[in-house]
Write a structure and sequence with these properties.
Number of domains of chain B: 1
Largest interface: A-B, 61 and 63 residues
CATH class of chain B: Alpha Beta
CATH class of chain A: Alpha Beta
Number of strands of chain B: 15
CATH superfamily of chain A: Thiolase/Chalcone synthase
Radius of gyration of chain B: 20 Å
Mean pLDDT of chain A: 96
Order of helices and strands of chain B: HEEHHEHHHEHEHEEEHEHEHHEEEEE
CATH superfamily of chain B: Thiolase/Chalcone synthase
CATH architecture of chain B: 3-Layer(aba) Sandwich
Strand order of the largest sheet of chain B: 8-15-14-9-10-12
Helix content of chain B: 25-40%
Structural class of chain A: alpha+beta
Number of domains of chain A: 1
Number of strands of chain A: 9
Largest sheet of chain B: 6 strands, mixed
Shape of chain B: globular
CATH topology of chain B: Peroxisomal Thiolase, Chain A, domain 1
Distance between the termini of chain B: 26 Å
Mean pLDDT of chain B: 97
Low-confidence stretches of chain B: none
Strand content of chain A: 15-25%
CATH architecture of chain A: 3-Layer(aba) Sandwich
Helix content of chain A: 25-40%
CATH topology of chain A: Peroxisomal Thiolase, Chain A, domain 1
Low-confidence stretches of chain A: none
Strand content of chain B: 15-25%
Order of helices and strands of chain A: EEHHHEHHHEHEHEEHHEE
Oligomer: heterodimer
Largest sheet of chain A: 9 strands, mixed
Number of helices of chain B: 12
Shape of chain A: globular
């Protein structure tokens, strides 16, 4: 299964967009951890901008960067959203309200609570009526999104964007499911090479416990292990370094994904 | 289910779920209260996974998957499952037992095995002993319809030879109070397409199907002929008034099946019984199919099973084909005069070879499936 990488977006702690992240991942600049900066998306009308939860802003920001990088119109491109954590802040607020006497939940908060909130806002913001899905596979969520996005590209012979994102939960959920930081990773994938193609991916599903690729920088390795969306880091490192080779990604228990990356 | 459809029976009852105090009707599975999941999977015990296991134990389904596992190997069977709220009710209960001093959740709260959307996926994967690739789709009320698309693509791409699709959604306070806050819960049993419809009846339910390559199909088997997926790009919780996204999904499903509208014998509608859904879905259906094609919603019988609506209505569609039964709409008394499609109040017998079924969700997530008998 082969796809072409046309656009890349990355947002994480100390990784302010793909250009900055690329310099860190190639080793040109050292990794300095700092809070993830998530800009409100100008794609949304101001009223909606205020109401959108942080995970949605994160997904919109990183997705938008990948499309800008690809020079492609988001309105005519299918999307695969994947997140382990979904809408944590909204979940917390709803559960607090439901545990109280009043139980007066906010209708806006309720529709913001769905796992596909980011996909819904994306569709409204970009005016895309293309197919869109929202996946979860706990720590394997990035792998799930990648395998689905690549399968869509191959089945439909159309470009597809993959948008992976995770936002830490507030307490008390954070103690039950600690996530290190906000992190988003996005790719625009196409069935054929285009003027902006930077690499090809060939994907293989593996059984067994083959060692996944690790980050040589220990702080980046901590991110990889501490945020499901950051399991993407070794793949993005290969893209940044323009190196040819296999990247083995964590997937479900006793399974892995092997991605053969060839720079173009 | 077969008998219930034939008898036009509704399972909706006044809401007495847990501590919910909402004047509405729901579809409950009372057996879940005392049910426990398989002991080796006890960490996953929550209402949603109980519902999933109870369903996997029906109709010899787990045995059929075991036979497929022997045939293909566990690693060649994928799982593409859907849920909207997963084990959220476990979190709702845990929030009532927070430490009064620290606010911490109780020590026995298990996030990964209950609350996370993937909880259902890992539970079913382990229950059935599958090691192929899979994940959970959580796109609100289109989730388990879209899972058919995932499975079909994975099989076509050679990632797996067979797949378990379906999922579960169980009652919780969030959906009851949430839909109530939107003014979308009906006071009585929901009445899809009725002139006096006043909202949804939330139900809980699960369904699973084992999908294999069509080249193995025996004559008479039901095939997944087409899938259409689209987005509304309109509003988070209100469907596009003209049913634009719905229309795109139905047209794509027909196109991918290589069929014309006239080839469809019956449409199982999303038909939630809200004013807006039924009006916009009718517009979309009428524009494509005109006034003849019989259609109905079965949510008057089942309630709106949210993330499980897609799989359960795909199963209704399969039963319609197998039994030649186009189910009439339970609880609907008189069809809204503004409706122009051929909406069935009473059961109709007849040859059914191809069915289209719709599932639409929050966020404007639409999916249509075309199912048909192998020629």
């Amino acid at each position: 299964m082969r796809v072409f990488v046309e656009g890349v977006g990355l947002l994480g702690p100390g990784l302010r967009g793909w250009e900055a992240a690329r310099r860190v991942l190639t080793g040109e600049e050292p990794f300095r951890s700092a809070s993830t900066i998530i800009a409100a998306s100008e794609l949304l009308p101001p009223a909606e901008r205020r109401r959108t939860p942080v995970p949605v802003k994160l997904a919109l920001a990183v997705g938008q960067e990948a499309f800008q990088n690809a020079g492609r119109d988001a309105a005519s491109t299918a999307t695969v959203f994947t997140s382990s954590s979904g809408e944590g802040e909204t979940l917390h607020q709803m559960c607090e309200t439901l545990a109280s006497e009043e139980r007066e939940v906010s209708p806006t908060r309720f529709h913001n609570s769905v796992h596909n909130a980011a996909a819904g806002y994306w569709s409204i913001a970009t005016r895309s009526r293309e197919a869109s899905t929202s996946l979860c596979a706990y720590d394997a969520s990035f792998g799930a999104g990648l395998i689905e996005a690549m399968t869509q590209v191959v089945s439909w012979r159309k470009p597809v964007a993959l948008i992976a994102y995770d936002q830490p939960y507030p307490e008390p959920l954070h103690s039950a499911r600690p996530l290190l930081a906000s992190f988003g990773a996005a790719l625009v994938l196409t069935p054929e090479a285009t003027g902006r193609t930077s690499a090809t991916f060939d994907l293989e599903f593996l059984q067994g416990e083959e060692k996944p690729a690790r980050m040589s920088d220990s702080a980046l390795e901590e991110l990889r292990l501490g945020i499901p969306a950051a399991r993407a880091l070794p793949l993005f490192e290969a893209l940044a370094r323009k190196t040819q080779g296999d990247v083995v990604l964590d997937f479900l228990t006793e399974t892995r994904l092997r991605v053969s990356v060839s720079p173009c | 289910m077969r008998d219930a459809l034939r008898e036009k029976r509704s399972g909706l009852t006044p809401c007495d779920f847990e501590t919910a105090r909402i004047d509405t009707y729901v579809g409950t599975v009372p057996a879940l209260d005392d049910f426990r999941v398989r002991p080796d999977l006890f960490d996953y015990d929550c209402r949603n996974n109980r519902l999933a296991q109870l369903c996997l134990e029906q109709d010899g389904f787990a045995e059929r998957v075991a036979a497929a596992r022997d045939r293909h190997g566990a690693a060649r069977i994928g799982f593409y499952l859907g849920t909207s709220t997963s084990g959220l009710h476990a979190t709702e209960l845990a929030y009532r037992r927070r430490d009064p001093k620290t606010g911490a959740l109780p020590a026995d709260y298990r996030y990964a095995e209950t609350q996370n959307a993937y909880s259902l996926g890992e539970f079913v994967r382990r229950y059935l002993g599958l090691t192929g690739p899979g994940f959970v789709v959580s796109s609100a009320c289109s989730s388990t319809a879209k899972a058919f698309g995932n499975a079909a693509r994975m099989i076509a791409a050679g990632i797996c030879d067979a797949a378990v699709v379906g999922g579960a959604d169980s009652l919780c306070l969030m959906t009851l109070y949430g839909f109530h806050s939107l003014g979308l819960t009906s006071r009585g049993p929901c009445r899809p397409f009725d002139a006096n419809r006043d909202g949804i009846s939330i139900g809980e339910g699960a369904g699973f199907a084992l999908i294999e390559k069509a080249d193995r199909a025996r004559a008479g088997a039901v095939l997944l002929l087409g899938v259409g997926e689209s987005s509304d790009a309109y509003h988070m919780s209100t469907p596009h008034p003209e049913g634009l996204g719905a229309k795109i999904a139905m047209q794509q499903a027909l196109e991918s099946a290589g069929l014309r509208p006239a080839d469809i014998d019956y449409i199982n509608l999303h038909g939630t019984a809200t004013k807006t859904n039924d009006a916009s879905e009718d517009k979309a259906v009428f524009e494509i199919f005109g006034p003849e094609t019989p259609c109905s919603s079965t949510k008057g019988a089942t309630g709106h099973l949210l993330g499980a609506a897609g799989i359960t209505e795909a199963i209704v569609s399969i039963l319609a084909i197998e039994d030649g039964l186009m189910p009439g709409s339970a609880n609907t008394r008189s069809v809204d005069p503004a409706i122009r499609s051929n909406y069935l109040l009473e059961n109709r017998q007849g040859k059914v070879t191809r069915v289209l079924t719709n599932s639409f969700g929050f966020g404007g997530s639409n999916c249509s499936l075309v199912l048909g008998v192998a020629q």
